């Protein structure tokens, strides 16, 4: 797979225009079209839908763009390494819970970015079901999970610490005034849960099943912030890391439920076992460790 074709593909995907891509790449539009066609023939599927004068990525094209970014970043990193250039070019792809990305990551990046200004960062939420494969094929370099452990023999996890978990609701909800609440009290309640933020969600659902507790409904949301806003609007109950609702509880906009037990979740840093760790990734991992040791 030729790097020039990947570069052309990425440029067209960014601009969604063959003419503009040709101008950026300083070549004829026919050359761009030929390179895209050759890449599509090599892969065996169309990467773009041609609709009149406009183009759109196909589903296969959207997937290929992830790999193209990664392969081109690896090329840049390899060239910088063997030429002895200043370290810090390339890209790191990170998967982490939204809560961690919102409340912890900015403090880490404040130290990391000045040391590695040339590193591109791709940061998205974690999806446990695909994580092992993403780490194996290097579309993801490093992942983080709110969980106590991960049952995958090819993955190497490092325990960074624990975060308290709170059951919360809106002020005025009957559960907000009870002196002692447990899973049985969630019978018939509306539960708001994140789609991909946590491993503790799975534990919650397993416990509800074991306790034979049936919520009125479960509403899944992609955003922790959306869950908080729904709670503050007067809807339902959720379980969430304490740091994500600390200010809202203090201000009286969200009510903590007096749960019968103290709850917490582990924070794991996860890599594919025995994979080479480039210097920018190694430095990032060290900064993460330092942050969690110091907090």
Automatic annotation (TrEMBL):
CDD domains: PBP2_LTTR_substrate (cd05466). Residues 1-58 form the HTH lysR-type domain. The keyword DNA-binding applies. GO terms for molecular function: DNA-binding transcription factor activity; transcription cis-regulatory region binding. The keyword Transcription applies. InterPro entries: LysR_HTH_N, LysR_subst-bd, WH-like_DNA-bd_sf, WH_DNA-bd_sf. Pfam families: HTH_1 (PF00126), LysR_substrate (PF03466). Keywords: DNA-binding, Transcription, Transcription regulation. It comes from the Bacteria. Belongs to the LysR transcriptional regulatory family. This is Transcriptional regulator, LysR family. It comes from Syntrophobacter fumaroxidans (strain DSM 10017 / MPOB).
């Amino acid at each position: 797979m030729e790097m020039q074709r990947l570069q052309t593909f990425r440029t067209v995907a960014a601009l969604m225009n063959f003419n503009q891509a040709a101008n950026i790449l300083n070549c004829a539009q026919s050359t761009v079209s030929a390179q895209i066609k050759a890449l599509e023939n090599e892969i065996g599927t169309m990467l773009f839908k041609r609709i009149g004068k406009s183009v759109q990525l196909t589903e296969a094209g959207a997937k290929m763009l992830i790999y193209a970014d990664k392969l081109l970043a690896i090329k840049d990193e390899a060239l910088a390494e063997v030429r002895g250039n200043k370290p810090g070019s390339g890209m790191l792809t990170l998967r982490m819970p939204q809560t961690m990305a919102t409340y912890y990551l900015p403090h880490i990046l404040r130290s990391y970015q000045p040391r590695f200004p040339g590193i591109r960062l791709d940061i998205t939420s974690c999806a446990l079901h695909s994580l092992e494969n993403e780490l194996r094929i290097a579309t993801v370099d490093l992942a983080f999970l709110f969980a106590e452990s991960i049952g995958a023999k090819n993955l190497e996890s490092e325990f960074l610490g624990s975060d308290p978990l709170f059951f919360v609701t809106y002020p005025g909800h009957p559960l907000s005034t009870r002196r002692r609440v447990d899973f049985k009290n969630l019978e018939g309640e509306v539960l708001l849960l994140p789609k991909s933020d946590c491993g503790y969600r799975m534990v919650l659902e397993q416990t509800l099943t074991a306790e034979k507790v049936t919520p009125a409904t479960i509403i899944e949301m992609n955003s922790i912030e959306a869950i908080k806003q729904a709670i503050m609007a007067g809807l339902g109950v959720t379980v969430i890391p304490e740091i994500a609702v600390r200010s809202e509880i203090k201000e009286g906009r969200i009510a903590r439920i007096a749960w019968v037990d103290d709850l917490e979740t582990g924070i794991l840093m996860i890599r594919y076992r025995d994979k080479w760790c480039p210097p920018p990734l190694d430095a990032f991992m060290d900064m993460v460790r330092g942050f969690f040791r110091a907090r």
